[in-house]
Structure to design on (1411 residues):
């Protein structure tokens, strides 16, 4: 009995996006990281071997994030106080790229200044040779003010500026355009909204190979299935030839998982939830790996043990099986 | 081989003398040099077609012939802003009105005409007969009623009649006042009781003159607009057509608000009275025009969505809005004006046309009748653009239908400067792509008061084409024009400055208006795409698209496609029918056979509930973009320069 | 090939007689196409049409169910490769493996922990499905002792693992009357295993490391009369398992390849390190396993896996919803405003994002409107004064704020009067219609 393996043959290809620039390319990174380029659904190596592997990004902050789970603060320890030290430790933990998430306020409780944001960014760039993504605090005015300054101060480094949303993308995109950077485009778990934002950003003149799309996900137990299906659909659309969905996808399972009660809290929770640390790491890891199987090209994580496990899973997924 | 350095002589019929220009000169430039003013509302982008000229002799090179048909080009037409001189030429500039008539995409609703071969005596159920009764005597002591019946049989061939108590109270007086000569009006053959005895509507003393019209009305009760046609039943001619906003609007803009309102306190009575006031007001207006009295009207057919019919009849409508969305009654037997409260002859027949479902009512079955869809060979799509967008897809073999909530934006309601398509409404707009200055056309030709549906469609299309709004509908606030400004509701665009308007206020379109319009068009586009998907038919198989609705007396198909309201198909697929609901009511009013067909249509339409799963919502968000998130569905929009 | 509504309609009598309970033949045809009604509901359909229609309705992946003492675990009957295309129907059974080399007491302790495990997730009680017993000792006596030990504690369905028909027979005798899953048949033992499966009414997994090998075995066993088959493709790593499971599902669905039209069993417990077990199991849940056998049971990994299984097997055709409740935006305090909206995710996101990105703190009360947007929910009677008041009370919003003032979406301004009646000690304010206007409204009017 012989089964003929059904292979899909798609007309579309996911674009590649390269993060970071080496000195030869006008930046200071020790190497660049390229994502995307797939011609098949995730890890269907029997159709065509994927050119680039999914990438693990580690999220660090410009100041110690007191609202993070104690498990995270404990594991990063003193490194969390200094962006430079944190960047080094994240690299050592296995990060392929770094995400510097800027805070809304500084240690003095006053709004983060553009100068402070630039200083933190430069410290990270000096401490680590990894390509970098810089996310604003998530409020339109602050994002625009800080990211424009960061974009100008890091001209040529090809960092990714985030996060563009449909109500606030023009300033960030303009800053990326002017300074040779990329952007991340976030839409709320909807295939059409993701595509619309890509079109609007592209209409401003930013080439598609400088846009990462973030379709947003929920954590395990908090809507992961929506993010999962939206990503599967976006990738299917991309392969079917829809140009405006042919972008690599970035998601933030670390942020999502660590805001759930299951990860964040260790006391006064049901006994059936089991050991806190293992549960929290499993929560982040399963969220990330499930999304990688649905098409994520970059997962932004927070715990070093999750980084280790997810990297191992990626190695496993990228191994071309002998049986095929 | 063209000599590029050569100079050519170009003569314009309206210019005092020829001019000499080099190869490659645009005709508009040549015209300017010759002192000829060519209108270019779109700013010379080859989009509006208003700069068409006729090349009588010589050659020009047409870069674009968008908006010109092959026949036009063969006849020498060229767009002055898109054509360049390549040799000597003689050119005529047609008057602007002539151009307007030529443009193929502006579809004006067909005028009302009595159907060909219409025979009122066979088709009309209402009859008027003049009777001369033998007076009673001591030898002939038959009662008045028997006497009338016998005479009817002998003189009009009508066997039996029914009459109301009120009529028995008056028969005697009419017979005696007319000295036993009377004029009777009867409804012979109600659709809901075939073969039943004829019903007496009116009995008047004396013989009325032959040429006195016998009045009926066809009424469409829209959620936003009520339309009434006054018809002479003896000839079938519509003699007056009037429309007004439904006065129920003050109690809620959409059917849901009205249903909820009706469920409270005295709400049902209030809403019924408001719509009756609206209809009765329209009756007065229409009757005045033809010197008739509302009491002369002896028959009315009423069309409208299911909620409107329920509210008119004060039938509880609550079940319409609550799952599983059923009406109290889809097919109402004939009633009398006395029961309903219409201010026409109290015994007049009131015939409410049948609906299919909660959100596909008589307005749609009437629309299908009026559009001829139910008898078409090829697959036809019928889109009724109203507060609720209703859609029918099918052919002679099958019909499916659905409804989607579009909101009243295309009827000019719920938009800051929106209005109905009456005098003073801007019905067509062009925006200059370089200066962002608009040009517009006003219904009736005077100063503008606001924007009607077709004007809003045109405006949105032009704003999108010229970059005043981005594909997401956001107004671009950094354009170098005072017309884009920050208003009370965020960014807005000024279509007409206060000093050019009838009321002395700026006419603007706000970001919220744009959102409303985009949502309205998205709901309708999603409605017909999902409907086609559900039956497994690609939109490409649709041969004809019939568009109905009361957003104006015409629609610019190109612009409706531009914003993604209508599917991107060849323009000759489209037919604009105007208000099909009242048209269907009119046909049912004058023709018993048409009335039977409406019933058959309602019985074979398959209603599809769009909210049953996610597909409608998906299609809707996908359409919340100009023209659409999936640009490949709109190849002709992409092609526009 | 599935037929469209119009295609089915053409096979029906087209009389619109309504005998089937639907208003028109086309309405009935569309229900048939959506598999929401049986063809038998039409008394007038011809034999020809019947034949054509029933062929189109046979499931491409066979339904296999394991049974014991009132428990049932079902796998198969899936019709799509991607959950968004329709839905995934049967949640894969999660089993814990025990080896008969462990002592009966050890086994009992481990079974007791797993068997009694319950965890509550969004109001639902989740539990594991059963146990797998492996004859690692290769002796019938130890195998029987291990099965007995399990059965003394748990009555959940069993998977019995041995390639030796004699040992398997010993195990099967202990679970007479149940329908366990035997693992399994291979190229050498298939005949004997097949006979046992028939004799005991058990389901049988076939083991081979190639698709051809699996197909070969299922064809032979089907000829032998064994219907309830399960595929064990033996892939031990993520990449291989993803490829194989995808190929099996594709062949079954797209090619209607019957020899592989069976559920798949996965053994994440075979992973190299325990940390990878939960990752492999998560992968098996999303990517097409019908039965999943774990080696380790711990609440901290069982809980996330059970939740993932709930999530992936949620019906995606239902509108995306967020949990009703009070959401804190930008660390609100007692002076922050209280906003109300529905639990349709897009509605929630648009409101939450606008307020969040403005930096203004607020309490956002999300009501249970069955996943509808504000206007739709209001239209359908799912977002009315009563429901809003109930949410405000249930979520104890009054305890969080000093000023009892709630902001209604502008689209439902009409509800303000009734809400005043429902919440007499609250001030009801009507906010803007669009979320985008909320920040300005909060700044100016509150």
């Amino acid at each position: 009995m012989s089964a003929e393996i059904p292979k899909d043959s798609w007309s579309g290809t996911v674009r590649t996006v390269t993060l970071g620039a080496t000195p030869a390319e006008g930046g200071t990174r020790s190497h660049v990281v390229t994502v995307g380029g797939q011609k098949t659904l995730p890890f269907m190596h029997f159709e065509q071997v994927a050119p680039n592997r999914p990438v693990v990004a580690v999220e660090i902050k410009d100041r110690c994030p007191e609202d993070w789970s104690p498990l995270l603060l404990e594991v990063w320890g003193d490194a969390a106080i200094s962006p430079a030290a944190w960047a080094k430790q994240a690299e050592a933990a296995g990060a392929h790229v770094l995400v510097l998430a800027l805070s809304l306020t500084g240690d003095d409780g006053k709004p983060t200044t553009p100068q402070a944001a630039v200083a933190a960014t430069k410290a990270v760039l000096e401490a680590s040779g990894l390509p970098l993504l810089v996310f604003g605090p998530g409020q339109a005015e602050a994002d625009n003010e800080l990211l424009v300054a960061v974009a100008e101060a890091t001209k040529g480094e090809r960092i990714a500026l985030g996060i563009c949303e449909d109500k606030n993308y023009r300033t960030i995109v303009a800053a990326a355009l002017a300074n040779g950077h990329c952007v991340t485009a976030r839409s709320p778990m909807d295939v059409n909204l993701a595509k619309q934002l890509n079109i609007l950003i592209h209409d401003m003149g930013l080439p598609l190979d400088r846009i990462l799309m973030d379709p947003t996900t929920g954590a395990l137990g908090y809507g992961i299935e929506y993010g999962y299906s939206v990503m599967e659909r976006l990738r299917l659309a991309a392969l079917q030839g829809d140009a405006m969905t042919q972008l690599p996808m970035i998601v933030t399972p670390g942020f999502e998982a660590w805001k759930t009660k299951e990860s964040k809290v260790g006391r006064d929770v049901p006994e059936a939830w089991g050991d806190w640390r293992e549960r929290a790491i499993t929560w982040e890891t399963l969220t990330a790996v499930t999304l990688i199987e649905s098409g994520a090209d970059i997962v932004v994580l927070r715990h070093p043990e999750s980084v280790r496990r997810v990297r191992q899973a990626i190695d496993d997924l990228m191994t071309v099986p002998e049986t095929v | 081989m063209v000599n590029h350095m050569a100079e050519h002589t170009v003569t314009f019929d309206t210019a005092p003398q020829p001019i000499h220009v080099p190869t490659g000169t645009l005709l508009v430039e040549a015209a300017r040099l010759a002192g000829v003013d060519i209108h270019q509302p779109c700013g010379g982008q080859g989009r509006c077609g208003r700069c068409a000229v006729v090349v009588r002799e010589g050659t020009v090179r047409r870069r674009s012939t968008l908006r010109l048909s092959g026949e036009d080009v063969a006849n020498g037409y060229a767009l002055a802003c898109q054509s360049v001189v390549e040799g000597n030429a003689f050119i005529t500039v047609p008057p602007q009105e002539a151009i307007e008539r030529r443009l193929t995409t502006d579809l004006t609703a067909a005028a009302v005409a009595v159907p060909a071969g219409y025979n009122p005596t066979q088709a009309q159920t209402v009859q008027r007969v003049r009777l001369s009764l033998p007076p009673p005597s001591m030898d002939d002591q038959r009662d008045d009623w028997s006497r009338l019946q016998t005479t009817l049989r002998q003189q009009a061939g009508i066997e039996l009649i029914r009459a109301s108590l009120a009529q028995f109270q008056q028969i005697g007086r009419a017979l005696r006042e007319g000295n036993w000569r009377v004029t009777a009006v009867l409804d012979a053959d109600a659709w809901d009781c075939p073969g039943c005895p004829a019903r007496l509507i009116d009995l008047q003393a004396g013989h009325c003159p032959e040429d006195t019209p016998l009045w009926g009305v066809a009424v469409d009760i829209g959620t936003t607009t009520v339309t009434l046609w006054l018809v002479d039943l003896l000839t079938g001619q519509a003699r007056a057509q009037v429309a007004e906003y439904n006065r129920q609007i003050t109690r809620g803009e959409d059917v849901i608000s009205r249903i909820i309102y009706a469920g409270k306190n005295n709400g049902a009575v209030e809403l019924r009275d408001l719509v009756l006031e609206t209809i009765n007001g329209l009756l007065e207006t229409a009757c005045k025009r033809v010197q008739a009295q509302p009491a002369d009207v002896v028959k009315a057919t009423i069309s409208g969505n299911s909620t409107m019919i329920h509210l008119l009849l004060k039938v509880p409508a609550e079940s319409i809005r609550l799952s599983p969305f059923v009406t109290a009654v889809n097919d109402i037997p004939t009633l009398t004006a006395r029961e309903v409260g219409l201010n026409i002859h109290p015994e007049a027949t009131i015939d409410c046309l049948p609906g299919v479902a909660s959100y596909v009512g008589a307005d749609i079955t009437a629309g299908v009748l009026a559009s001829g869809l139910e008898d078409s060979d090829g697959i036809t799509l019928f889109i009724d653009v109203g507060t609720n967008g209703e859609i029918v897809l099918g052919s002679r073999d099958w019909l499916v239908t659905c409804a989607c909530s579009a909101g009243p934006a295309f009827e000019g309601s719920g938009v800051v400067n929106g209005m109905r398509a009456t005098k003073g409404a801007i019905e067509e707009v062009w925006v200059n792509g370089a200066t962002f200055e608009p040009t517009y056309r006003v219904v009736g030709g005077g100063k503008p008061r606001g924007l009607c549906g077709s004007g809003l469609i045109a405006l949105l299309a032009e704003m999108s084409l010229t970059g005043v709004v981005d594909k997401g509908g956001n107004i671009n606030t950094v354009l170098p024009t005072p017309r884009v400004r920050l208003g009370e509701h965020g960014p807005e665009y000024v279509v007409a400055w206060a000093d050019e308007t009838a009321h002395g206020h700026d006419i603007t379109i706000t970001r919220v208006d744009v959102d409303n319009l985009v949502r309205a068009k998205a709901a309708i586009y999603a409605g017909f795409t999902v409907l086609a998907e559900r039956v497994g038919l690609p939109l490409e198989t649709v041969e004809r698209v019939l568009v109905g609705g009361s957003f104006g007396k015409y629609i610019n198909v190109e612009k409706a496609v531009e914003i993604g309201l209508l599917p991107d198909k060849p323009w000759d697929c489209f037919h604009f029918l105007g208000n099909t609901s009242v048209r269907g009511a009119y046909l049912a009013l004058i023709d018993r056979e048409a009335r039977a067909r409406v019933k058959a249509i309602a019985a074979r339409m398959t209603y599809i509930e769009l909210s049953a799963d996610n597909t409608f919502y998906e299609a809707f968000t996908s359409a919340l973009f100009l023209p659409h998130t999936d640009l490949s569905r709109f190849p002709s929009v992409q092609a526009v320069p | 090939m599935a037929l469209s509504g119009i295609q089915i309609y053409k096979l029906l009598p087209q009389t619109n007689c309504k005998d089937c309970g639907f208003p028109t033949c086309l309405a009935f045809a569309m229900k048939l196409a959506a598999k929401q009604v049986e063809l038998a509901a039409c008394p007038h359909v011809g034999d020809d049409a019947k034949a054509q229609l029933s062929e189109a309705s046979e499931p491409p992946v066979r339904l296999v169910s394991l049974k014991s003492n009132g428990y049932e675990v079902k796998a198969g009957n899936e019709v799509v490769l991607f959950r968004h295309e329709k839905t995934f129907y049967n949640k894969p059974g999660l089993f814990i493996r025990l080896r008969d080399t462990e002592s009966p007491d050890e086994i009992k302790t481990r079974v007791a922990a797993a068997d009694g495990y319950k965890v509550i997730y969004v109001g639902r009680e989740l539990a594991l499905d059963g146990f797998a017993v492996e004859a690692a000792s290769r002796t019938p006596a130890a195998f029987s002792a291990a099965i007995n030990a399990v059965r003394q504690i748990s009555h959940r369905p069993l998977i019995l693992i041995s390639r030796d028909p004699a040992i398997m027979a010993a195990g099967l005798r202990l679970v007479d009357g149940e329908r366990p899953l035997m693992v399994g048949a291979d190229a050498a033992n298939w005949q004997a295993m097949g006979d046992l499966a028939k004799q005991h009414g058990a389901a049988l997994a076939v083991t081979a490391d190639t698709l051809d090998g699996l197909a070969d075995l299922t064809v032979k066993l089907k000829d032998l009369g064994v219907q309830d088959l399960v595929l064990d493709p033996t892939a031990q790593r993520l990449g291989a398992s993803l490829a194989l499971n995808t190929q099996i599902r594709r062949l079954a669905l797209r090619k209607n390849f019957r020899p592989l039209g069976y559920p798949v069993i996965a053994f994440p417990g075979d992973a190299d390190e325990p940390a990878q077990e939960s990752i492999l199991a998560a992968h098996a849940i999303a990517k097409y396993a019908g039965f999943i056998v774990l080696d380790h049971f711990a609440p901290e990994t069982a809980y996330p896996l059970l939740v993932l299984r709930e999530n992936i097997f949620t019906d995606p055709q239902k509108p995306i919803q967020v949990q009703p409740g009070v959401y804190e935006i930008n660390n609100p305090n007692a002076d922050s405003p209280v906003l109300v909206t529905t639990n349709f995710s897009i509605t929630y996101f648009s409101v939450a994002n606008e307020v969040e990105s403005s930096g203004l703190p607020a309490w956002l009360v999300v009501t249970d409107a069955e996943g509808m947007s504000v206007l739709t929910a209001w239209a359908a009677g799912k977002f009315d004064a009563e429901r809003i008041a109930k949410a405000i009370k249930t979520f104890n919003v009054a305890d969080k704020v000093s000023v009892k003032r709630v902001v209604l979406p502008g689209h439902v301004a009409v509800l303000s009067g009734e809400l005043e009646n429902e919440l007499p000690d609250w001030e009801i304010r009507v906010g803007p219609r669009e979320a985008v206007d909320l920040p300005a409204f909060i700044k100016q009017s509150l």
Summary: Chain C touches chain B through 28 residues (CB under 8 Å).
